Amino acid sequence: MENIHLAIVEDDPVIRESLETYLGAHPALQFSIVAGSVEDFLEKAEKPARVPKIDVMLLDIGLPGMSGIEGIRHIRQKFPETDIVMLTTFEEEDKIFKSLCSGACSYISKRTPLSTIQEAIFTIHRGGSFMSPSIARKVVQHFMPKARKEEDILSPRQQQIVEALVDGLSYKLIADKLSISIDTVRDHIKRIYKLLEVNSKAEVIRKALDGDIY
Amino acid sequence: MENIHLAIVEDDPVIRESLETYLGAHPALQFSIVAGSVEDFLEKAEKPARVPKIDVMLLDIGLPGMSGIEGIRHIRQKFPETDIVMLTTFEEEDKIFKSLCSGACSYISKRTPLSTIQEAIFTIHRGGSFMSPSIARKVVQHFMPKARKEEDILSPRQQQIVEALVDGLSYKLIADKLSISIDTVRDHIKRIYKLLEVNSKAEVIRKALDGDIY
DNA sequence: GGGTAATCCACATGATGATGTGGTTCAAGG
DNA sequence: CCTTGAACCACATCATCATGTGGATTACCC
Prior knowledge:
The structure is a homodimer.
Chain A: E1 4-9, H1 13-24, E2 29-35, H2 38-46, E3 56-59, H3 68-78, E4 83-88, H4 93-102, E5 106-109, H5 114-125, H6 133-141, H7 156-166, H8 171-178, H9 182-196, H10 201-209
Parallel strand pairs in A: 1-2, 1-3, 3-4, 4-5
Helix pairs in contact in A: 3-4, 7-9, 7-10, 8-9
Chain A binds a DNA duplex through helix 9.
């Protein structure tokens, strides 16, 4: 099995060195770059004649200068093949999602034992993803049925109309599609607006796409 | 530590019984209901005078009768407190997401060792979530920056306009917000339509909310 | 220095959307 | 039996949107 090339970006020297020592001790793991900030990392990545190979990267969020989340974009630009693992003390939802949306592939709590982090690196390099359980829970909750404020307040017919609106159809096309008069379409939409407390197509589409309707 | 009450819905008797035997052997785990289909499960859940307690439920997808995914809704209606774990051979993306959207909290491959499944149950009962690594990867990829078809094709100003459209603002309000003439707003939007190859506000909002723009 | 692109603005026209009023039919429930 | 609500349709009016044509300024690149 080939070596896995790692990078760490972490400002706390204690954590950084303990990771470096523990993970570096494994024969299949080796460090390409160890940095204290994203800026530092990018600079070190420029230095060598040829760009170093990095398979998996451990990235802190709370960094001096550019935050880890901002850093993800820059790093992915230069290292599109690298799997980025956020390693952080915070489990705030918005940080988790911002990280994932920016392109991180895993999100691990710093409280996680080193041995588990090591396992995670192998898992990730195999094409998987490792999430701390509490973080995974937050992620799956994002898919879950929402609070259902509007649930069942729209009749089946009204839901069809909303679907059509979301598909970008005009009143005329909706009328054709559902084989009803355009005035009836207007009528439905009037009622939908009242029910959803909106007053434009745009807002309906937004609500629908945000999952605020069903 | 209190006992964890389990349920299994799985049509394959071999798998069902091996789970029952292995997991049931643990002193902290006990089975409330074991069923071969969702229908079977719901019937058994009705029988006793008082509704049985179920903390964690293992649910197969490929079931006779109602599929596991359909079943999630019915089960959550009756057992809103139960954490539902999909346990399945399939790792198809749409099934994963349909399950999560219906309210499953974890998704585990049947190839996973029994000991890991057992650990997962404890993790889940603690309020976490367990995903097989390959499945977790598919989940996080859903958050990742998309194929970037439209990336960078919109100028910063155009992106501001799109944002405003998504917020449901009219041309007039956008003009006020950006302190420009309404005709200029029209002008921007004309160009945006050409770039995105659409011809209505609705489609722009859809694209933006689907992440097809940035 | 001419080409290109982004931003800005104006005028005009037809299509679409938002909203109100008024009416019919049918099915479900008190 | 009568009310209520969903779904259906029509007419009317004003606002907003979609689209075209034409022009100005700035800035950057070859």
